Amino acid sequence: MRCCLGVDVGSVSTNLVLLDDRKRLVKKLYLSTAGNPINAIKKGLWILQQEIKDLEIFAVGTTGSGRQLASILVGADIVKNEITAHATAALEFYPDAQTILEIGGQDSKIIIIRNKTVVDFAMNTVCAAGTGSFLDRQAQRLGIPIEKFGEIALKSSNPTRIAGRCAVFAESDMIHKQQMGHATEDILRGLCEALVRNFLANVAKGKDIRPQILFQGGVAANVGIKKAFEEQLQHEVKVPDYYDVMGAIGAAILAFNYVVARQKRTNFLGIDVAFQDYKVKSFECNGCPNSCEIIQLFSDERLMARWGDRCGRWSSSLAV
After folding, report:
1. Do 7 and 14 form a contact (C-beta atoms < 8 A)?
2. Which residues touch 159 (CB under 8 Å, ≥6 apart)?
3. Could you report the per-residue pLDDT of 49-64, keeping only the tens digit for each?
4. Which one, 22, 88, 164, 274, has least CB within 10 Å?
5. Which residue intervals of the chain bear CATH 3.30.420.40?
6. Architecture of domain 95-239 in CATH?
C-alpha cells in the first residue's frame, strides 16, 4: 500500500496518520508523548509496520513543537508549523472554513482564513487555562473520567460562575465553589463557560470570527466546551471527524503535494527507524553573545544532525 505519512509531535500527544494516494485516511494513531518524543515516534512507526503489511511511504511531512526533531528522525520531505498544517487539513475537508479554533494539550490557537488563505492567527502566550492538560487535572480532582467531562457539564441548568482569567484563579475558584456545596455538573458547566470566555478575551482578542467555524485539537472532544463556544459566538461550531489528528493530516497533505508536484523521491529513512537507538544531547555555543543551545541527535553513537544555531556554524558543518 502506497501512503504518505504525517507526524505531529506535541508536548502531550504525538500523532501519526497515513493517507493513500487519493488523500483518504488509511490509519491514525494518537499516542502520548510522555516527555519522550523519540520513543513516541518509534512506537508509532512500529505499530504502523505491524498493522499494515507491504507499506510503502512515498511522502513524509512533520509538524508540531517537535517537528524539527521528527523531521530528522524519520527523514521528512517537508516541515511545517502547526498553523499551516491545521489550516491545510481544515480546507481539505471544509473548503468554506473561515475560522479555526484549535485547543491541544498545552496550547491553544485561533486561525483566520479568507479565500482559502491564512490571513491572521494567534496563540496563547501567558495562560494554559482551557488546554487539555488543565482539563485533565480538574477532572481527576473531581473524580470523573475526562471522557465524561462535557457530557456531565451539559446536564447543568444553573451553571456556576467561575473566574476564568487564568488557570490558577479558575482552579482556586472551583475549589471554593465545591466547598460551598455547588453541584459537580454546575461547576463543570461554569468552568466550560469561563474557559471559553478566557479564550475569546485573550487568544481571539480583536479577531474577526466568521462562520464556518471549526473546532480542532484534542479538547474538541469536550461537548461542554463546544456548546460554550456556540453560545458565546452565536454560531454553529463544527467538530471535524478527525479533530484530534488534523495537524498530522495537514502535514501529510503538504508532503503529498510537495513530492507529487515536483516528482521527487521521498527522503523517508524507512520503518527501520523504529528499531534504532537514538539519543539527544545539547551544549551551549559560546561563539557569540547569542549563546545558542545546540541540539545534537545521535543514532547508535553516530552523530546524525545538529540544529538550534542561528548562524549555521554547527548545523552546516554536518551533512544530514
Report:
1. yes
2. 186, 189, 190, 193
3. 889 888 899 999 999 9
4. 22
5. 2-85+247-275, 95-239
6. 2-Layer Sandwich (3.30)
56-63 and 108-114 beta bridge pairing:
unpaired
- Residue 9 pLDDT: 93
Spatial separation of the C-alpha atoms in residues 158 and 150, rounded to whole Å: 15
Which pTM was predicted? 0.87
Which residues does the chain have with pLDDT short of 50? 319-320
Is the distance from CB of 167 to CB of 128 less than 8 angstroms?
Answer: yes
Q: Rounded to an integer, what distance in angstroms lies between the CA atom of residue 63 and that of residue 14?
A: 10
Give the pLDDT confidence of 186-243 residue by residue, as tens digits.
888 988 888 888 889 888 989 999 999 999 998 899 999 999 999 999 999 999 999 9
Nearest CA to 221 among 192, 201, 199, 198? 192
At residue 130, the 3 state secondary structure works out as coil
The third-level CATH classification (topology) of the domain covering 2-85+247-275 is: Nucleotidyltransferase; domain 5 (3.30.420)
DSSP state of 264: P
Q: What is residue 274's three-state secondary structure?
A: helix
For residue 69, the tally of other CB atoms under 10 A from its CB is: 21
Helix axes 223-233, 184-201, angle to 10 degrees: 50
Grid cell, residue 171, equals: 482552579
